Amino acid sequence: MKLLLLNFLLVGFVFLISTASYSQQLTQTLRGQVVEAESKFPLLGAVVTVYKDSTLLTGATTDAKGNYRLTGIPVGRVRIRYELIGYSENVLDNIEVSSAKELVLNVELQQSAAETQTVEITATREGEVQNEMAMVSSRQFSVNETDRYAGSRGDPARMASNFAGVQGADDSRNDIVIRGNSPQGVLWRMEGIDIPNPNHFNIPGTAGGPVSIINNKYLANSDFYTGAFPADYGNSVAGVFDLRMRNGNNQKHEFSGQFGFLGTELFAEGPISKTKGSSYLASYRYSTIELFSKLGIDIGTDAVPRYQDAAFRLFFPGKKNSSLAFWGVGGKSSIDILISDQKTPDQRNIYGDNDRDQYFKTRMGVLGVTYHKTFSEKTFFKTTVAAMTDQVDSYHELVSRHLDENNRYVVDSLSPLLDYTFTQSRISVGSSVNYKINRKWTWRSGINADYYFWNHVDSVRELDTASANYYKWNTRWNSENFGYLIQPYTQFKWRPSDVFTLTAGIHGTLFQILPNGDNKRYASVNLGDWRLGLKRELPKQQSISLGIGRHSQIQPTYMYFYIGDYASSANVLFQKNYKMHPTVSHHFVMSYQRVFNGKLRLLAEAYLQDLSEIPVDYLPSSFSMVNSGSGFQRIFPSMLVNEGAAFNRGIELTIEKFFSKNWLFLFTASVFESKYQGSDGVWRNTDFNGKYAVNALISKEWKLNENSRITTGTKLTTAGGRWYGPADIEASNAARELVFVDSLRNTKQFAPYFRWDIKLNYTVNRKKVAHNIGLDLVNVLNTKNTLKLTYAPDENNDPNTAVREEYQLGFLPVFYYRIDF
What we know:
Layout: H1 2-20, E1 27-36, E2 47-52, E3 55-61, E4 67-74, E5 76-83, E6 89-97, E7 103-104, E8 107-109, E9 122-123, E10 138-141, H2 143-148, H3 156-160, E11 166-167, E12 177-178, E13 186-190, E14 193-194, E15 199-200, E16 211-212, E17 222-225, E18 239-243, E19 254-260, E20 263-273, E21 278-286, H4 289-294, E22 306-317, E23 322-337, E24 356-374, E25 379-403, E26 409-436, E27 441-463, E28 471-497, E29 500-514, E30 522-538, E31 542-553, E32 583-596, E33 600-617, E34 640-660, E35 663-677, E36 683-685, E37 692-705, E38 708-719, E39 723-724, H5 729-735, E40 748-749, E41 753-766, E42 769-778, E43 786-791, E44 803-807, E45 812-820
Parallel strand pairs: 1-7, 1-8, 6-9, 13-18
Antiparallel strand pairs: 1-4, 2-3, 2-5, 5-6, 10-17, 11-12, 13-14, 15-16, 17-18, 19-20, 19-45, 20-21, 21-22, 22-23, 23-24, 24-25, 25-26, 26-27, 27-28, 28-29, 29-30, 30-31, 31-32, 32-33, 33-34, 34-35, 35-36, 35-37, 37-38, 38-41, 39-40, 41-42, 42-45, 43-44
């Protein structure tokens, strides 16, 4: 691997020398549209000015359609100001201008609540979400941030782990633990509809994975919420990723190609019709990890993951401020984790189990069409219709083996062990209307409706204790069902002045599993999820905010159809848990923010979350669904009842210097407590109660000349370890899988997590072409962080030591080369 890194650095150095002397001044075009923030109505006469440092370069005004265009903008970073009388100005700092691609920026301006000729309050938009109903616990993330933060690997989910209250202390996955909640409580939304888990190698009931299907190259700025989110969002008790796709360039064809550790990528965008303003955008990626695995880079397993993903968007402007967009995103993945191929115990496998061969496949896809229409200066309508599917297919073979006298494995037998296929498809509709009653009042209402098609088949061989060494097949899932989830909502925003804002809303949920054959009907109705937000602007760019509300979430849908070992005398299969209710969580958040000189932000938040109606065992035990949703394991529960409880409480601090004078830093710290109560009545630490999490990140840009630069960055992360309990060795050996002592669950804690990452990036602009070389050095100290306990019965031929600690990824270099033209 040292030779590989040396060659990479040598190529980069030669490339640097050959291009650094190129200093011809290059320019690019800046254009876009300016609209009103709430009605999306085009704004005529908005003034757009561009600055280089403090020097005014050029300016323009928008036309009747809100469009503007400026040419001759020098390559590098610029400051762009948008102004219109009666509206708060919008200032975008340190916007990067590239020689290869036009800069297209669509901007929203917020109308003043007072009928005055001038507005003194400014909105810099640094980190401010686009949803004007959000008052607390929200953050906008941009494509530039995912490229700039060390350790993010271009993944929005991993980038979000830098924010206060968010833990990402699992190198094998991008699971997001928000304020001690399970990762399954995170909702993914795209273009106004809820989408399946957008990650390769996803597991039912989870919201993360090892590699994201989402590519940041086709994303517009998107919003991330960590609690007390507005009434637009439901079926979530932890957080929300609200993703938006951007439109392709409607005036110029542009292309990108990238080769790196995570895959080979191709990207294209351009006009379909320049006169009509229609455009296309397309992206494709194919994994190349197999190549780097053969070069000796430790990826945590000898198995080679294979995956590919793609996305597209076709945009067609219509008449009278309307538009139509056809879009899609999807991916498929597979991996064969063959324990039987291992030769010695030192071969690592952080994915899968250590007693079986696993053949694992997943696929996920969404196809949608979105219609926008601005009827007037007051009314905006949006609707999206989409079809989607999410499938997991897995086959396991039990490996019986022993160690010979040379400490090498000898395989004794391979036996079929497990076979399952889970498919969830749905047709979804998301519609909303925004009505601006006047300068002070805005009303928004909408509905999200999903019609589900489920198919679950699962069989496993289990030891029959009545017959020694005889394994029988047992069916755990065998269902084909239908159902729907309907979520209406309505909310208001009141701005009596430019310094005070109040939002209030209600979100309802109707979830129903339809009868099919012998399956029973189940329905859950909840119209009481309420939200309230307050924000008060104070002098010296200070503000205080409050967010409270009731949130609920249905359980992972595959669990409603679990059979287990129950069957009636008529051999009619019985679904144990079809009567589970949604989990409920009440959120309370208080926030204080101050911005110093528009460049430095201090944000402090305190929160309390009270969770109830959590599924737990009907017999006394420590089990609770509050601990599920991470890793690669499904849940196989007994009968569950909604009688569990939990709470999360903590304080968070963010100190952030926005990118200026060629550098930025971000410091976040969280101190929290996360406890739960199972059906045994005992209060315990949740699996995610790390107690604290700290991130410190800094990035510096070094300008070589007018057209090239080097960006360096580093990040330190530390967090409390996950909780666990001692293993029951005898029960584990009997079950051939890890079994914990139930009464001692989460009484032990792994050592604290620590990781140091470094990021290097070199960018050079040539005429109509830009080159980018990046190197992300993950865990440069090769710190051994404990991931989990694992069952490894053949580790040393001693059944009393069949459980061991599995460590996370060690040092991992993630690099790429990209060309834009």
